[in-house]
Amino acid sequence: MRSLLDRDFLFVAGKGGVGKTTVSAALAIAAAQRGQRVLVAMCNTKERLSHLLEVEPVGPRNQPLLDRIEAVNMTPAVALEEYGMMVLKVRSVYKAVFENRFVSAVLRGTPGIEAWAMLGKAQFHVHEEVDGRSRYDLVIVDGPATGHALDMLRVPQVICDVAPPGLLRTEAEKARSLFHDHKRAAAVLVTLPEDMPANETIELHGAVTDEIGMDVATLVVNSMLPKLFKASERNAIVELPTKLDEGSALTSLALAGRERALREKTQREAMKKLSDALPDLPRVVLPHLYTPDFRRSSVESLAASFAD
Q1: Is the CB of residue 5 less than 8 Å from the CB of residue 31?
Q2: What gap in Å lies between CA 113 and CA 109, rounded to an integer?
């Protein structure tokens, strides 16, 4: 996974609830352990990174979290203000441009401007320098759920198509060029070993590579249960509850066994579907962790999968 962490920009995407924030946190820790300075940029989400890493809540402006790791929970309004200031440098110029009522009307009418405010801020930090060196070695965008993630990634092309020549279009072209640079930028797709997330991931891979032109560097399969039953045992385990006498002391155990056997079957079918559709895509499988409170130590254990 060394080549993955050597990128400058990673966009973590997948169906809602598959563990994108957990993966983003694990990637950040793995990179920081290599000595990289990392920014994790969330997209106006219900923030849970601070809970995972046992730090103060993450707000809408960049803030330190752990050694070499900063984070931000971007909101469109604050991101646009910060992005405008970063690009224009001088507050008086920012006020003259972005607070001009005509410019504001154009911005409000530009398709995807709220998504661009956040994406533009994130990609700006990829190029940002302080005292002659990069402020961050790696920017990780913890993207929204699949549909919104694709809409966000489409915005630079939309702006290039509709915006007149000028600052906005220039910045969009810079983001589009970054996405197309497979040495510097990549998507990380996150899924669960289940049917619907697997199907959505396959479709997402096609859209990211074919439409956006971005490299998909890795598929992360999250929360994989260890295998308990052989395929030859599965049918017997599934049928066992129906063969017990009513009121048997073994009924609860048999039902639990059936549920686990069916879950393992689902996992196996989902993994085969992913392998058949994406045979050449590098894969990281993260185990399901049996812990009552998933916190920093758990994330650190997953980070080892990306640091290997």
Answers
A1: yes
A2: 8
Question: In 3-state terms, what secondary structure has residue 103?
Answer: helix
Alpha carbon 244 to its chain centroid, in Å, reads: 46
Residues near 150 by beta carbon (within 8 Å), at least 6 away in sequence: 204, 207, 208, 211, 212
Angle at 132 between CA 129 and CA 137, to 5 degrees: 50
Give the bridge partners for 219, in sequence order.
Answer: 189, 283
Q: Which sequence spans correspond to the domains of the chain?
A: 2-227+282-300
- C-alpha neighbours within 13 Å on the C-beta side of residue 212: 27
Between 170 and 206, the more confident residue is 206
Q: Which residue has the higher pLDDT, 204 or 115?
A: 204
Q: Give the per-residue pLDDT at 108.
A: 53
Q: What are phi and psi of 113, to 5 degrees?
A: -65, -35
Give the pTM.
0.91
| Residue pLDDT, tens place only, 256-267 | 999 999 999 999
Q: Comparing 78-87, 143-152, 179-188, 215-224, which segment has the lowest mean pLDDT?
A: 78-87
Architecture of the domain whose range is 2-227+282-300: 3-Layer(aba) Sandwich (3.40)
By C-alpha distance, which of 131, 117, 137, 135 is closest to 184?
137
Measured between alpha carbons, how far is residue 239 from residues 120, 172, 235, 263 in Å?
A: 55, 58, 6, 15
Distance CA 22, CA 294 (A): 10
Q: Can you tell me the distance from the alpha carbon of 271 to that of 259, in angstroms, rounded to the nearest whole number?
A: 18
Average pLDDT over residues 240-247: 90
Cβ distance 261 to 238 under 8 Å? yes
